[in-house]
Amino acid sequence: MHTRARITKAWAYISFTLTVAVIAFLFIYVFTSGFSVISWQFITDVPRGSVLGSEGGIWPAIVGSVWFTLTALILGGIPAVATAVYVVYCCRSSWFEKFIHTIMQSIAGIPSIVLGLFSYSLLVRTLGFGRCILSGGIALAIMILPFIETRTEKAMRELPKETIFESYALGCSRLYTILHIVFPAIKGELVSGLILGGCFAMGATAPLIFTGGVAFASVPNTVMEPAMALPLHLYLLLAQGTSMPQAYGTAFVLMLIVLVTNIIATFYSRRKKRRWK
Amino acid sequence: MEIIMKIDGLSAYYDGKIAVDSVSLEIPKNRISAIIGPSGCGKSTLLRCMNRMIEEEMDTKVEGSVYLEGKDIASIPKDELRRKIGMVFQSPAPFPFSIYKNMTYAPKYYGIRGKDRLNALVIEKLKMAGLYDEVKDELNKSALKLSGGQQQRLCIARTLSIEPDVLLLDEPCSALDLGSTAAIEKMLTDLKELYTIVIVTHNLAQAKRIGDYTAFLYNGKLIEWAPKDSFFSSPSKEETKAFLSGMYG
Ligand SMILES: Nc1ncnc2c1ncn2[C@@H]1O[C@H](COP(=O)(O)OP(=O)(O)OP(=O)(O)O)[C@@H](O)[C@H]1O
Ligand SMILES: [Mg+2]
User: Fold this and answer.
1) Is residue A137 part of a domain?
2) ipTM of the modeled complex
3) Residues of chain B contacting A, Cβ within 8 Å
4) DSSP character at residue A46
5) Does residue A9 lie in a domain region?
6) pLDDT one-digit tens code per residue, B76-105
């Protein structure tokens, strides 16, 4: 029994160390390799060079990624939160609830390239949106919808049902209850869910390839224009062998954005959670 | 005797399983009606049917009708109905706000504005529930930091804040000591001038002390319903006699 417990413990430690080591190595490797090309100019300049991207910066890709992410967050976040509210507070049949969960799981299981293909054939071609931020943003929105829905629903379910019922019993409407009790109580988790969903969207390449991401574009002005995106830019730099340092630099910026927003999200939700404990 | 609520052939089901079985009952106005019965016999469910809270639960079905002052409650909008029929739950759940915000939450919903008006209301209702003296210096403290008994009294005060006509109380003294229980009982006895009170209690002595009428529920069925004196001194049904002699529950 003793040896068994010890082996389990050792195994857990080894796996933990290994995981941390791999992640740390990845970060350090990308950060050190990319650090050399990082400069103010790299961030603020447009791609240049005989082969576009071999020199210059990635500013349009940063802005493009932000546009894609915000579009996805608005178009995915609103229905996701609305679905969670419906499932938790309005749906009165466990059958329909299960049905919605099944749909969410199915969406979560769709490979992102298939979402890109769907968006391409429906939005870009059939509906004639063309390649633009909106078409790509919708594909990303579908991708992050189940993620945000699940997190929001989980946070809502953690609230005691009695608290909500007390509000109903005072005669207060569902809307008043949700706005004054539910949202304030889950604000931290809601915001962190949205931020993490945004990071998820920001890192995705496949849904953008056919739908709105392009190898080169200037900074977009509307959602009906195509745009560059950081992960796609990175993919193209590597795939076409344009420039390794540039690729690492791009990866560095992407990881930095994702890392920083993740840290912010974690701290924000912790701080909010602690307040009522 | 004036009747304020009439329950007529009421049955309630959870997932097709019956919890309240064709109960008919008339609740007298400005009196305290006590509902007793063993655990799981449907007391809470009966209360939930009286302000339609049962509809908030999953997969429920209700048959029969409940009338408030002659009007079928199914035809009264839920918020209007619940403002008239306030309910205190079996396990108190204060909102995760300050004590003060707990008290103003519902009045604000009903459009009561103005600091002075709200302050006066908060103080009046907290006093009624016998909580004011303990919390008067820390109205901004989180309600979740109160003790179980204090939370229970806060929930009573919060329900009073909507000034209902009928007060449904589901074991309001389960987490209280003798002193607070006595205070709540005195408050309820005082309040019956203004309100009609229906109280579920496990405590037979309490039903005897404060109730004017007593109902005995068993397995979802109403076994006996009588003025307190005759209920306790000369119950007519065998089940009631057995229950009063402590054979079940
Ligand atoms: N939300 C629910 N879902 C499913 N069944 C329920 C639910 N609430 C109550 N029941 C069932 O309905 C029956 C009556 O429950 P109820 O809560 O009304 O009993 P009670 O008399 O209030 O008991 P107690 O004295 O223990 O509070 C029980 O058999 C219970 O299992
Ligand atoms: Mg009960």
Assistant:
1) yes
2) 0.90
3) 51, 53, 55-56, 58-59, 78-83, 86-87, 89, 91, 93-96, 105-106, 109-110, 142, 144, 155, 158-159, 162
4) P
5) no
6) 999 899 999 999 998 889 999 999 999 999
